[in-house]
Amino acid sequence: MKTTALLLATLSLLLPAGNAFAATTIAQQKPNIIFILADDYGIPGVGCYGGAYKTPNLDALAAGGVRFERCYSAPLCAPSRALCMFGRYAFRTGVLDNGCGAAAKPDKEVCIAKTLKQAGYATAVAGKWRQLTYFETKEDAQRWGWDEFLIWGVGGEKGSRYWQPALNKNGQPASVTDKSYAPDMFHEFVVDFIKRHRDGPFFVYYPTTLIHGPILRTPDSKEGGERKAKGKGKGDNTLYADNIAYLDKLVGKLVAAIDEMNLREQTLIVFTGDNGSVPVGTINGRPVDGHKSQVNEGGSRVPLIANWKGVTPAGRVLKDLFGFSDFYATFAELAGAKLPEGVTLDSRSFAPQLRGETGTPREWTYVQLGAQWYARNDAWKLTQSGELFDLSDAPFVQKPVFAGAQSAEAKAASKQLRAVLDKLNPASGETKSRKKVAGDKQQKKERKKAKKGATQTP
After folding, report:
1. 3-state secondary structure of 158
2. Could you tell me if residue 253 is inside a domain?
3. Residues 133 and 211: beta-carbon distance below 8 Å
4. Sign of the CA dihedral 309, 314, 320, 321?
5. What mean pLDDT do residues 373-393 have?
6. Do residues 122 and 252 both lie within one domain?
7. Are 316 and 185 in the same domain?
8. Are 269 and 255 in contact (CB under 8 A)?
9. Integer Cα distance of 438 and 64 in angstroms
10. pLDDT band for position 158 (50/70/90)?
11. Cα 83 to Cα 134: distance, rounded to the nearest angstrom
12. CB 3.0–4.6 Å: which of 31, 85, 270, 313 could bond 356 by disulfide?
């Protein structure tokens, strides 16, 4: 009896330490990574940020993980996607706006998928690739680092991004009917990929086409919704709400599927948007300053939610500064991957913050669109032309601060941010937006060769 009692007492003492050890062990493992990127979706689109739209599944994801208050993308689709895929600022990659995606070539830029694949990850992309180009065949996918793909907007297709979509599945046109809805197809592809690679680790890049225009009815919209999309006012806003609700629904379905496969404790889920814009652009009733394509808070400040059960502290809200280039180093650190050599990265890992640690938060972040750019610290912003703005009331107002009226604090901020911009020296790189970028002739030859080989294969 004494021996049994002693054993039970010993076990009871070990249990708390054992639980802590288990949590630490989970955090040290290579997690599966699912990176969800919504299209044209700023912070006013998410309920838990104070937005006007209902997003119960995103809110639940944030409640069980970390919500980042100040994450900055570029104000347009292509530059944002280049930032997170390559971890480099626009003046280095040449992806300055939506007409410059071809500047980023797979022999020039090292995609995060390639870095993670070299660390043993199975990789897949499902959704919108479009502006970054060079992606039609399996061989193209391999150059970027993708094992499998289902993507919209490549190879010159002009089909819809929603109903009866023109999708490329692993180098071949995807089979669709008049009832096919692209967001559902992307979801099914992702879940199938996860099921087949559940033993992990895997990396899924999920750049859904929602909620970019044209704003059409969803499978859950009431009859007549598509007709309303062509009108103005209330009808448009109703359909926007429908699209946001469907995006939120698909996030919930994905989380449920991961739960069913008992993968939540092995999987980091990251959700963000590529730039700001929703019709009701308010936070707690106050209008945010600006929208998509504008180099200000409303154009670049986007939601960022991270959830890794057993690792991310539930309900944590961070006001650290984050930039889209930071996903690269973060995912690489979590994966135990080696960063590419001979490449200048503008990426800082926030993996420690995901674990509940302080980490090394940024003192500033950088945003660029074409020949416009700025550096921003905690409360101030300095543009390429030397304009200083007080951001104490951001994201609602940016107050210009004129040279003759600068306080000591403003002068110190201006000096710090000027030093940041001088060191980056964006003007020495790509700053002129080009609507057409010369393609890589060798890439074209290899694609033609691959297609010819495919047609000759029995």
Report:
1. coil
2. yes
3. no
4. positive
5. 97
6. yes
7. yes
8. yes
9. 46
10. low
11. 17
12. 313
